[in-house]
Each structure stands twice: as structure tokens, then as C-alpha cells.
Amino acid sequence: MTSFEGFVCTDCGQTVTDEGATRCPDCGGTLDASYDYDAVDLTREELADRDGDWKYGQLLPFTPNGIGEGTTPLIEAPRLADELGVGRVLIKNEAHNPTGTVTDRGQALVAEAAVRAEADTLALPTTGNGGQSAAAYAARAGLLSRAFVPSRTNFVNKAMINVHGGDMRVVEGRYGDAREAYETEREEMPAADREDWFPAGAFDSPYRHEGAKPLYYETVEQLDWEAPDAVVVPVGHGAVAAGLWKAAREFADLGLADDTPRVYAAQPEDCAPVVEAIDSGGDPEPWEYPDTVVGSLEIADPEGGLPAAEAVRASGGDGVAVDDQDALDSAATVAQHEGLEISIACGVATAGAWDLHDEGAFDDDDTVVIVNTGTGNKDADIVRSRLMSQGL
């Protein structure tokens, strides 16, 4: 049974109990799930005896009808640990999700919420991964999907949106242009038809960031119930960073983990609104000229920028912005030193970990977790091109 009580608007404080809620009905603000933690009676032994992708269901709004998302491996990276001069480095490998990215965790909840809301279409603007995931989970739930993608989106994402039966509109430009096209089309629809669209974008409903929480629960359990000292996460929309920190607080408050980690947000230096906000202490401002080869992180005005920045600050972590070429080199290094095929978004996080080490962010005995948000084969051509430019 879940301990879910409802959703709370992070802007005005309004409480919403509808399981299919998206935005605050009063102010349009972002909703966040709340729980009766006093009613949660969980032990490490009980959780260890459970199987399945959603065994932490008491800390989620509901259990979705998934397709094998979650329970991803936590892989030791001993050569990286030696190079960073820390006790352990582990990579939480989200490439093992059904469509190859961490997005599947949240989209499983989104699809279930859409069914409960009696919607018929998952709709979203996306840099690519979210659209592929939404198409897969819509197919599973018997729903339609509609994705607005920028022309820069990689071929694999575009192809798989269609393979899953999704409808796709390719918009010239970048993510912001796709978002504008999505909002324009939705506004121009008759009101009755608009209700059939269930928003599947990050922070367009409470489910994407809530669905990211089990990533952290699993990590702690895989570490024999010890919280890592630091987690380095690539940040685009901010859903993973925000969800991870919420999960860390929950496990610590419930006595399931001994502590909480420092959360470090990594972004490309030519599109780093969250890192800039962390550095300035203010709210994220839209990035005027986003330009990075890391397409999944090229989010100039992230919907969850503020929650992500607040999570990093509260954890005692920091932000780090890295050069594109360093990110590509880091993705290749992980493949060559550890045998793992990581996304270039994880390359950003790995390059960020090296920079953080140089800045003295880690202690010699720290356990550092780097989140690989997606499969490396979607970015293989970009990384290989980088190697070829070096004569390799």
C-alpha cells in the first residue's frame, strides 16, 4: 500500500488529491507528491526480500504497469576510482531500462496516470529520449503518443518514436522551438480535445521526477544500505537531480540509510543554466545561446531548473560545467578503461567528476556514484567522430 496523500503545489501550496493531476488547478504551478511518512513501516530486511521493479511502492503515488524499468546495475569502476583518487567510483547504469534511458522510470508513472485520467494521448516536447520513452509506454498502455522534437534530435530517437507507433512532428531548431510548437498546437485545439492530451514532459506533471526516486533507493540497497558520499548527475530538465535528492531525504528520515549524499549537477558549459544558478545563488535564467553536442542536455530554460538547483544546494553539493570535447573524451575513456558504453550526457558527468576532483570536492575515501542516464549507442557516431578527429 502506498502512503501517498496527494500533491502539493510548490508555488502556492494548494493540495490536490486527484491521482491524474498534472498542474496546480489554481495557479498552474508545479505539483510535488506528498506522503504520510509516519504511516510508512519499512525495514531493510523487508525491502531486501521483495522483488520487482516497483518494490518501493509505498513511497510512490501508485504502482504502474511497467515493462521492466528499474533495478538497473551499479557497476564498480576501479580505474576511474584510481584516476580520481577516491575510495570507490560506481556507475548507476540506466542504459538497462527498456528504451535505454532513465526517462523510462518516470514515463511508466506518466502512462499510468494518463490511464487513470482517461486521457488518450501522451504528448510532449522532447530532445528525443522522452519521446521514444513516451511512445513505448503509450503503446503498452493502449494510448497514442505525440512528440514534438527539434530537427537536431538523433536518428535513433526519431526512428523509435515511429517504430512504437508514435506520431512525431519535427520542428526546425532546438528544444525551445519544439516546446513552442507543442504549446501552440495545444492552445489551438478545442478544449474537449485538449483534455485528451496528457502532458508527458518533465515537470509538466508530478510523475517524471517522482519516478526518478527509485534510482536512489536501489543505489543505497546495492551499497548495503550505505549512502554514497557523492552523486554526480547530468542535468537537462532537472528531474533526476530533484527526484534523487527527495529520495535521499526520504530514506534518511525513515532510517533506511545512514546519511544523505552530496549531489553534484553537471552540464555542458555552453548550456548550463542550472550550474550558473547554483554558482550565483539565484534562480535559473534562460540560457540565451545554447550550443552543445550533448543534445539531451541542451535545455536552455529547464522546467525543473529551480528544484534541481535547490536540491544541489540543500545537499551540500555543487554545480560543474564542462567543455563538450572533454565530455566526449570522458565517454570514450569510460568505454576504454571500464568497458561501459555510456551516453555523452554521462560523459558530461564523468568529465565533471574529474573537474570536481581537481577542485578538491572529494575526499580520499569517498564513494562516488556517477549516473549514466542512457545507452551509449545513441551517441556512438559523435564519440567516434571525436576519436577520428584525434587520428584514432
What does the model show?
Helices cover 40% and strands 17% of the residues. By secondary structure, it is an alpha/beta fold. The strands form 3 sheets. It has a 6-stranded mixed sheet with strand order 4-5-13-10-11-12, with helices on both faces. A 4-stranded parallel sheet has the order 8-7-6-9, sandwiched between helices. Strands 2-1-3 form a 3-stranded antiparallel sheet, with no helix packed on it.
Key phrases:
17% strand; alpha/beta; four-stranded parallel β-sheet; globular; 15 helices; six-stranded mixed β-sheet; 392 residues; 13 strands
Sheet with the most strands: spatial strand order: 4-5-13-10-11-12
First-last Cα distance: 55 Å
Q: What ranges have pLDDT less than 50 throughout 5 or more consecutive residues?
A: none
Mean pLDDT: 95
Radius of gyration from the alpha-carbon trace, in angstroms: 20 Å
Summing up helix and strand content along with how strands pair, one would put the structural category as alpha/beta
Major sheet attributes: 6 strands, mixed
How helix-rich are the residues, as a percent range? Answer: 25-40%
β-strand percent reads: 15-25%
The H-and-E topology, N to C, reads as: EEEHEHEHEHEHEHHEHHEHEHHEHHEH
Number of helices: 15
Number of strands: 13
Principal-axes shape call: globular
Topology:
Elements: E1 4-9, E2 15-16, E3 31-35, H1 44-49, E4 74-76, H2 78-84, E5 88-93, H3 103-116, E6 121-125, H4 129-141, E7 144-150, H5 155-163, E8 167-171, H6 175-188, H7 191-194, E9 197-199, H8 207-211, H9 213-222, E10 230-234, H10 239-253, E11 262-268, H11 273-280, H12 305-315, E12 318-322, H13 324-338, H14 344-358, E13 367-372, H15 380-389
Parallel strand pairs: 5-13, 6-7, 6-9, 7-8, 10-11, 10-13, 11-12
Antiparallel strand pairs: 1-2, 1-3, 4-5
Helix pairs in contact: 3-4, 4-5, 9-10, 10-12, 11-12, 13-14, 13-15
